[in-house]
Amino acid sequence: MSERIIDFKKMDGLVPAIAQDSLSGKVLMQGYMNEEALAKTKESGMVTFFSRSKNRLWTKGETSGNFMELVSIAVDCDGDSILVKANPRGPVCHTGADTCFDEVNDSKTGFIDQLRAIIKDRKNNPTDKSYTASLFAKGINKVAQKVGEEAVEIVIEAKDDNKELFMGEAADLLYHYLVLLEAKGYELDEVMEVLIDRHQKK
Protein backbone atom coordinates (compact mmCIF):
# COMPACT_ATOMS: atom_id res chain seq x y z
CA MET A 1 0.00 0.00 0.00
CA SER A 2 1.12 3.57 -0.64
CA GLU A 3 2.81 5.33 2.28
CA ARG A 4 0.58 8.36 1.74
CA ILE A 5 -1.83 9.09 4.56
CA ILE A 6 -5.53 9.00 3.76
CA ASP A 7 -7.44 12.06 4.92
CA PHE A 8 -10.78 10.53 5.95
CA LYS A 9 -11.86 13.83 7.55
CA LYS A 10 -12.16 15.60 4.20
CA MET A 11 -15.44 13.94 3.30
CA ASP A 12 -16.94 13.14 6.69
CA GLY A 13 -15.07 9.87 7.08
CA LEU A 14 -15.53 8.54 3.54
CA VAL A 15 -13.19 8.63 0.55
CA PRO A 16 -13.88 7.49 -3.03
CA ALA A 17 -12.40 4.08 -3.82
CA ILE A 18 -11.86 3.16 -7.47
CA ALA A 19 -11.57 -0.55 -8.22
CA GLN A 20 -9.41 -1.54 -11.19
CA ASP A 21 -8.81 -4.98 -12.68
CA SER A 22 -5.18 -5.83 -11.96
CA LEU A 23 -4.77 -7.72 -15.25
CA SER A 24 -6.80 -5.81 -17.82
CA GLY A 25 -6.47 -2.34 -16.31
CA LYS A 26 -10.21 -1.78 -16.75
CA VAL A 27 -11.96 0.37 -14.17
CA LEU A 28 -14.48 -1.96 -12.55
CA MET A 29 -16.47 0.29 -10.24
CA GLN A 30 -16.32 3.18 -7.83
CA GLY A 31 -17.47 3.03 -4.22
CA TYR A 32 -16.58 4.60 -0.88
CA MET A 33 -14.42 3.44 2.00
CA ASN A 34 -14.11 4.55 5.58
CA GLU A 35 -11.26 3.50 7.85
CA GLU A 36 -13.08 0.34 8.89
CA ALA A 37 -13.78 -0.73 5.28
CA LEU A 38 -10.14 -0.17 4.38
CA ALA A 39 -8.96 -2.18 7.37
CA LYS A 40 -11.32 -5.07 6.55
CA THR A 41 -10.19 -5.03 2.90
CA LYS A 42 -6.57 -5.41 3.94
CA GLU A 43 -7.34 -8.00 6.61
CA SER A 44 -9.69 -10.21 4.57
CA GLY A 45 -8.12 -9.76 1.14
CA MET A 46 -11.59 -9.10 -0.28
CA VAL A 47 -12.50 -5.56 -1.38
CA THR A 48 -14.94 -4.05 1.08
CA PHE A 49 -16.74 -0.72 0.82
CA PHE A 50 -18.97 1.36 3.05
CA SER A 51 -22.49 1.30 1.62
CA ARG A 52 -24.10 4.70 2.02
CA SER A 53 -27.55 3.32 1.20
CA LYS A 54 -27.28 0.44 3.70
CA ASN A 55 -25.19 2.47 6.17
CA ARG A 56 -22.83 -0.45 6.82
CA LEU A 57 -19.76 -2.23 5.54
CA TRP A 58 -20.36 -4.12 2.33
CA THR A 59 -17.97 -6.70 0.91
CA LYS A 60 -18.32 -6.81 -2.87
CA GLY A 61 -19.76 -10.20 -3.77
CA GLU A 62 -21.28 -11.00 -0.37
CA THR A 63 -24.62 -11.67 -2.09
CA SER A 64 -23.66 -12.62 -5.65
CA GLY A 65 -20.47 -14.52 -4.84
CA ASN A 66 -18.60 -12.31 -7.32
CA PHE A 67 -15.93 -11.18 -4.89
CA MET A 68 -12.99 -8.96 -5.78
CA GLU A 69 -9.67 -10.30 -4.50
CA LEU A 70 -7.33 -7.54 -3.34
CA VAL A 71 -4.03 -7.16 -5.18
CA SER A 72 -2.84 -3.72 -4.09
CA ILE A 73 -3.95 -0.38 -2.69
CA ALA A 74 -2.65 3.06 -3.62
CA VAL A 75 -3.55 6.54 -2.37
CA ASP A 76 -3.70 9.60 -4.61
CA CYS A 77 -1.46 12.65 -4.21
CA ASP A 78 -4.01 14.59 -2.12
CA GLY A 79 -4.75 11.67 0.18
CA ASP A 80 -8.45 11.79 -0.53
CA SER A 81 -9.07 8.88 -2.89
CA ILE A 82 -8.01 5.25 -3.10
CA LEU A 83 -7.09 3.07 -6.07
CA VAL A 84 -7.76 -0.60 -5.41
CA LYS A 85 -6.34 -3.13 -7.85
CA ALA A 86 -8.19 -6.43 -7.67
CA ASN A 87 -8.97 -9.70 -9.38
CA PRO A 88 -12.74 -9.95 -9.90
CA ARG A 89 -14.30 -13.42 -9.56
CA GLY A 90 -17.09 -12.64 -11.98
CA PRO A 91 -19.20 -9.74 -13.25
CA VAL A 92 -18.80 -6.71 -11.01
CA CYS A 93 -21.97 -4.75 -11.71
CA HIS A 94 -25.31 -5.72 -10.13
CA THR A 95 -26.77 -5.63 -13.66
CA GLY A 96 -24.57 -8.57 -14.61
CA ALA A 97 -22.18 -6.46 -16.69
CA ASP A 98 -18.43 -6.98 -16.35
CA THR A 99 -18.00 -3.44 -15.03
CA CYS A 100 -20.28 -0.75 -13.65
CA PHE A 101 -19.44 1.28 -16.77
CA ASP A 102 -20.88 -1.44 -19.02
CA GLU A 103 -17.52 -2.31 -20.55
CA VAL A 104 -16.42 -5.80 -21.55
CA ASN A 105 -13.59 -6.94 -19.30
CA ASP A 106 -12.08 -10.08 -20.78
CA SER A 107 -8.53 -9.02 -21.62
CA LYS A 108 -5.65 -10.68 -19.79
CA THR A 109 -2.84 -8.88 -21.63
CA GLY A 110 -2.06 -6.80 -18.55
CA PHE A 111 -0.41 -9.94 -17.15
CA ILE A 112 2.42 -9.34 -19.62
CA ASP A 113 3.57 -6.41 -17.48
CA GLN A 114 3.54 -8.61 -14.39
CA LEU A 115 5.51 -11.28 -16.26
CA ARG A 116 8.02 -8.67 -17.45
CA ALA A 117 8.55 -7.57 -13.85
CA ILE A 118 9.14 -11.18 -12.77
CA ILE A 119 11.63 -11.71 -15.61
CA LYS A 120 13.50 -8.53 -14.67
CA ASP A 121 13.63 -9.66 -11.04
CA ARG A 122 15.01 -13.08 -12.04
CA LYS A 123 17.75 -11.29 -13.99
CA ASN A 124 18.65 -8.94 -11.14
CA ASN A 125 18.12 -11.43 -8.30
CA PRO A 126 18.91 -14.87 -9.73
CA THR A 127 18.24 -18.09 -7.84
CA ASP A 128 19.39 -21.63 -8.59
CA LYS A 129 15.80 -22.86 -8.90
CA SER A 130 14.76 -20.31 -11.52
CA TYR A 131 14.62 -21.42 -15.16
CA THR A 132 14.56 -17.77 -16.22
CA ALA A 133 17.71 -17.01 -14.22
CA SER A 134 19.40 -20.03 -15.80
CA LEU A 135 18.71 -18.62 -19.26
CA PHE A 136 20.32 -15.30 -18.37
CA ALA A 137 23.30 -17.16 -16.91
CA LYS A 138 23.85 -18.98 -20.23
CA GLY A 139 24.14 -15.72 -22.13
CA ILE A 140 22.49 -13.93 -25.03
CA ASN A 141 23.27 -16.61 -27.61
CA LYS A 142 21.37 -19.27 -25.65
CA VAL A 143 18.40 -16.95 -25.09
CA ALA A 144 18.28 -16.05 -28.79
CA GLN A 145 18.58 -19.74 -29.70
CA LYS A 146 15.55 -20.56 -27.50
CA VAL A 147 13.48 -17.90 -29.26
CA GLY A 148 14.46 -19.43 -32.60
CA GLU A 149 13.54 -22.93 -31.42
CA GLU A 150 10.15 -21.80 -30.12
CA ALA A 151 9.47 -19.89 -33.35
CA VAL A 152 10.07 -23.04 -35.39
CA GLU A 153 7.88 -25.09 -33.06
CA ILE A 154 4.95 -22.69 -33.31
CA VAL A 155 5.21 -22.74 -37.10
CA ILE A 156 5.04 -26.54 -37.04
CA GLU A 157 2.01 -26.51 -34.71
CA ALA A 158 0.30 -23.86 -36.85
CA LYS A 159 0.11 -26.38 -39.69
CA ASP A 160 -1.89 -28.79 -37.54
CA ASP A 161 -5.26 -28.32 -35.87
CA ASN A 162 -4.45 -28.86 -32.20
CA LYS A 163 -5.31 -25.68 -30.31
CA GLU A 164 -3.83 -26.86 -27.01
CA LEU A 165 -0.42 -27.59 -28.54
CA PHE A 166 -0.47 -24.38 -30.57
CA MET A 167 -1.33 -22.27 -27.52
CA GLY A 168 1.42 -23.96 -25.53
CA GLU A 169 4.00 -23.08 -28.17
CA ALA A 170 2.59 -19.55 -28.47
CA ALA A 171 3.03 -19.07 -24.73
CA ASP A 172 6.58 -20.47 -24.88
CA LEU A 173 7.49 -18.12 -27.73
CA LEU A 174 6.06 -15.06 -26.02
CA TYR A 175 7.82 -15.86 -22.76
CA HIS A 176 11.22 -16.44 -24.38
CA TYR A 177 10.79 -13.30 -26.50
CA LEU A 178 10.27 -11.26 -23.32
CA VAL A 179 13.37 -12.87 -21.81
CA LEU A 180 15.34 -11.93 -24.94
CA LEU A 181 14.21 -8.30 -24.69
CA GLU A 182 15.33 -8.20 -21.06
CA ALA A 183 18.64 -9.87 -21.91
CA LYS A 184 19.25 -7.17 -24.53
CA GLY A 185 18.28 -4.44 -22.07
CA TYR A 186 15.30 -3.31 -24.15
CA GLU A 187 11.76 -2.66 -22.98
CA LEU A 188 8.58 -3.98 -24.58
CA ASP A 189 7.36 -0.37 -24.56
CA GLU A 190 10.12 0.47 -27.04
CA VAL A 191 8.75 -2.19 -29.38
CA MET A 192 5.28 -0.69 -28.92
CA GLU A 193 6.67 2.74 -29.86
CA VAL A 194 7.92 1.30 -33.16
CA LEU A 195 4.50 -0.21 -33.88
CA ILE A 196 2.70 3.01 -32.92
CA ASP A 197 5.02 5.04 -35.12
CA ARG A 198 4.41 2.71 -38.07
CA HIS A 199 0.64 2.89 -37.51
CA GLN A 200 0.64 6.70 -37.38
CA LYS A 201 2.56 6.93 -40.65
CA LYS A 202 -0.13 4.98 -42.56
Give structural notes.
This protein has 202 residues and is of the alpha+beta class. It has two domains: 8-88, Roll (Ubiquitin-like (UB roll)), CATH 3.10.20; 110-201, Helix Hairpins (Orthogonal Bundle). 43% of the residues lie in helices and 18% in strands. The chain has six helices and six strands, in the order ββαββββααααα. The strands form two sheets. The protein has a four-stranded mixed sheet, with helices on one face. A hairpin with a 4-residue loop joins strand 3 (48-51) and strand 4. The mean pLDDT is 95.
Total strands: the figure is 6
At CATH level 2, the architecture of the largest domain is Orthogonal Bundle
Q: Note the overall shape.
A: elongated
Q: What's the helical proportion of residues?
A: 40-55%
Largest sheet: 4 strands, mixed
Sequence stretches where pLDDT stays below 50 over 5 or more residues? none
Strand order of the largest sheet: 2-1-6-5
What are the secondary-structure elements, in order, as H or E?
Answer: EEHEEEEHHHHH
> What's the name of the CATH homologous superfamily of the largest domain?
MazG-like
Q: What name does CATH use for the topology of the largest domain?
A: Helix Hairpins
CATH level 1 class label of the largest domain: Mainly Alpha
Radius of gyration: 22 Å
Strand content: 15-25%
Count of structural domains: 2
